[in-house]
Design brief:
Distance between the termini: 53 Å
Structural class: alpha+beta
CATH architecture of the largest domain: Sandwich
Number of helices: 1
CATH class of the largest domain: Mainly Beta
CATH topology of the largest domain: Jelly Rolls
Strand content: 25-35%
Bound molecules: calcium ion
Largest sheet: 6 strands, antiparallel
Shape: globular
Oligomer: single chain
Number of strands: 13
CATH superfamily of the largest domain: Galactose-binding lectin
Length: 184
């Protein structure tokens, strides 16, 4: 039987969009009530493109020497987040530098509504001269009959299919060779 798992569920990508540092909002598909999605935000945008000054979903750097591998980092001012959902701040978690892709991940339980993502520039409060973007992806848990499927079980369920395909190939390969031989 299928097991119910609130964490580490098997999941698939349902949305993949860029939220631009100098742009407007991006709206996700409607997220089902009581289904726990995973939202991943990564990469960097510029709060001052000309000066090579970068920020990510939660943090920013004052060191212009490298916009990917930052020399320093500060949280967004006044406990804000730069990447916001529905106009509100999000706690995207501990800092991720360039070596981990400025990547952040949260769990979000759907409320039967779409989510609106935007970047607010809390550093200099102007989008003039901003640049680049944050990539946002939403993953939906795999469910069967209303139950969330655990990854281990999903892998186990795939195994017989893979085995059957392997057997089919073993049977098909000699047949193809035999047919080709007959043609010559
Ligand atoms: Ca700016």
């Amino acid at each position: 039987m299928l097991a119910v798992s609130p964490v580490a569920a098997a999941e698939y990508l349902i949305w993949d969009q860029y939220v631009f540092g100098d742009g407007g909002a991006q709206v996700s598909p409607v997220l089902e009530t009581n289904l726990t999605y995973r939202i991943v935000a990564e990469e960097i945008w510029y709060y001052d493109n000309a000066s090579n000054l970068a920020a990510d979903a939660q943090y920013y750097t004052t060191n212009f020497s490298n916009s990917w591998y930052w020399g320093d980092y500060l949280p967004a001012p006044d406990n804000h987040s730069f990447l916001q959902i529905d106009g509100g701040d999000v706690d995207w978690g501990p800092f991720s530098n360039g070596d981990t892709g400025h990547k952040y991940s949260i769990n979000y339980t759907g409320e039967g509504a779409a989510l609106t993502f935007n970047i607010t520039d809390w550093v200099d409060s102007t989008k003039e001269g901003n640049g680049c973007k944050i990539r946002v992806r939403i993953y939906e848990p795999v469910t069967v009959g209303g139950y969330v499927v655990e990854p281990g079980l999903l892998e186990a369920a795939k195994l017989p299919v893979v085995s059957l395909m392997a057997i089919a190939l073993l049977i098909a390969a000699p047949l193809v060779r035999y047919r080709n031989r007959r043609k010559t």
